[in-house]
Amino acid sequence: MSSDDPRACFPAAGRVEWIGVRSRRGQPVEVLEEVQAIPDRGLAEDHATKRAGGRRQVTLMQSEHLPVIGSLAKRAPEPGLLRRNLVVSGINLRALIGRRFRVGAALFEGTGDCPPCRAMEAALGFGGCNAMTGMGGVTARILEGGPIRIGDPVEPYNQRADEPRLI
Q: What pTM was computed for the model?
């Protein structure tokens, strides 16, 4: 399969490694084995599902970045400490910004970067925000819902995000 856009080519699917939700802002992350993706809302039981719309319904992070962040922060970060919803391996998440992709049965649209916030200073200690710069992950919205489980594939969907959707 060839493409005029090399960013549309992925050598392999990624994999869901970790799932977490927070029932309310400021609350600790609850680690799950499975979660339901709700279209135009977010992940079931996560505080983001309280309102429809928005570009930041789900946050995703690459597991490959965790050791680098740990090395720079001088502290091994647990995924829940970084307050992202999904940690995945094996696929470049930044290449999915502006594209549609499947996570398990759900269809997502990559909406942007997820830069670290001030909370990372408290979570990782002095310099924690800087340690995460460029590795905070991406944000996405959910176009089609469905279950997401640990071990599910993360793979690009063949339709670009700027193409019309069939409803």
A: 0.88
